[in-house]
């Protein structure tokens, strides 16, 4: 790989991370009747598909168990949702939407639409199809990202034990975009 090719990849990596950080930062500033946008996603999913296991919600909406618990606490405290334990397996917690939650979603049904159109509304059909393909590919590449990188870290540590002070083979030169 040439230095120019590597620099281009680093710039794309930096722009991608910048976009993710900016999205999360902006998303986290939005509160709808005291509910963060991820909480709205939870309510919409439960409203559409009925009572849900918290673990399934976390998995489907890409939330950690801690995040889902915190969001459900807020939803319950606001009266928008209620949790209950399954009788046959007390470890399993289910979430359902209340009539107050349905009313809140109805009052704010245009919020999700606005979020999506702000991000994607001005792109052409062709650009959207390209983005869809890129996003799918990125999601697939992220599937085993941490395991793959950690394997490299392990290999580097083993190499360092064998040859102290030597830079691992095939490592790229330092660049202004790399700021992990």
Q: SSE string, helix = H, strand = E?
A: HEEHEHHEEHHHH
* CATH overall fold name of the domain at 3-122: Arc Repressor Mutant, subunit A
Query: Which structural class best describes the helix and strand composition?
Result: mainly alpha
Kindly report the oligomeric state of this protein. single chain
CATH architecture name of the domain at 3-122? Orthogonal Bundle
Amount of beta strand: 5-15%
Provide the helix percentage. 55-70%
Largest sheet: 3 strands, antiparallel
The CATH superfamily of the domain at 3-122 is identified as: Winged helix-like DNA-binding domain superfamily/Winged helix DNA-binding domain
With strands numbered from the N-terminus, the spatial order across the biggest sheet is: 3-5-4
Average pLDDT: 90
Give the CATH level 1 class of the domain at 3-122: Mainly Alpha
Radius of gyration: 22 Å
Report the count of strand segments. 5
Q: How is the topology of this model organized?
A:
Layout: H1 3-27, E1 31-32, E2 35-36, H2 37-49, E3 52-53, H3 54-60, H4 65-77, E4 81-85, E5 93-97, H5 99-107, H6 109-120, H7 125-142, H8 145-162
Antiparallel strand pairs: 1-2, 3-5, 4-5
Helix pairs in contact: 2-4, 3-4
Protein name: MarR family winged helix-turn-helix transcriptional regulator
Keywords: DNA-binding
InterPro entries: HTH_MarR-typ (IPR000835), MarR/SlyA-like (IPR039422), WH-like_DNA-bd_sf (IPR036388), WH_DNA-bd_sf (IPR036390)
């Amino acid at each position: 790989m040439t230095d120019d090719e590597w620099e281009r990849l680093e710039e794309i990596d930096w722009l991608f991370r910048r976009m993710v950080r900016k999205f999360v930062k902006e998303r986290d500033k939005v509160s709808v009747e005291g509910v963060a946008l991820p909480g709205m996603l939870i309510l919409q999913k439960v409203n559409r598909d009925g009572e849900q296991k918290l673990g399934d919600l976390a998995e489907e909406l890409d939330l950690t168990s801690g995040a889902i618990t915190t969001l459900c606490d807020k939803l319950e405290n606001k009266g928008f949702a209620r949790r209950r334990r399954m009788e046959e397996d007390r470890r399993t917690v289910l979430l359902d939407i209340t009539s107050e939650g349905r009313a809140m979603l109805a009052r704010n049904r245009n919020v999700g639409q606005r979020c999506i159109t702000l991000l994607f509304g001005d792109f052409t059909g062709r650009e959207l199809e390209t983005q869809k393909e890129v996003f799918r590919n990125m999601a697939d590449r992220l599937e085993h990202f941490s395991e793959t990188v950690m394997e490299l870290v392990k290999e580097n540590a083993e190499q360092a034990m064998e040859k102290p002070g030597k830079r691992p083979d095939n490592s790229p030169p330092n660049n202004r975009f790399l700021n992990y």
